[in-house]
Structure prediction request, 190 residues.
Amino acid sequence: MRSRIVLETDGFVALPTIGQLFSGSMLILPRRHTERFSDLSRFEIGRFDSFARRLFDGVGSDHVLFEHGARCVSRGGCGIYHAHVHCIPVPSELLLNDMLPFGRQAHDSLSDAWKANRNTDEYIVARDSAGRVASIDEDVIRLHGYGSQHMRRVLVSHFSLPKPWDWRDYEEPERDLIAAVAARTPSHVF
Prediction:
């Protein structure tokens, strides 16, 4: 299989998610190693916004974004300790009430949410299909039992998907992942 990268800049790469809940589900990763997006500079986060817009330009579908940011010392998240934001096209609305039903803090932007979570070891930041942003911190994660891959569990439940929520349960090669790569022409944006 050729490279899974479908969009790249000097700062970020996008590739289809292993465990495609919806065709075209993508991950955005910074090229520079950091464990969480909240550890990126304001400049890097600004470049993320334009990169994400470019990734979903012309897709014609609502989409949600989320990150379960965790430092490896927290032992939270999905066990992958390189920052990554999930960008998932959804067939109908998915709102914050469903994504983060308890203890969420509203924010004006993803940048504001990441800034608010700089000093916590673990958080979840989400943007719903209406464009609203919220986050929860490690205290809320523990109090309400928001476990690993919480947002993938929400997507499977909310949309009654006949697929496993755990990306590790998908067989290789994954047909939807191969289709997502084939549907996108790799492009370089600088």
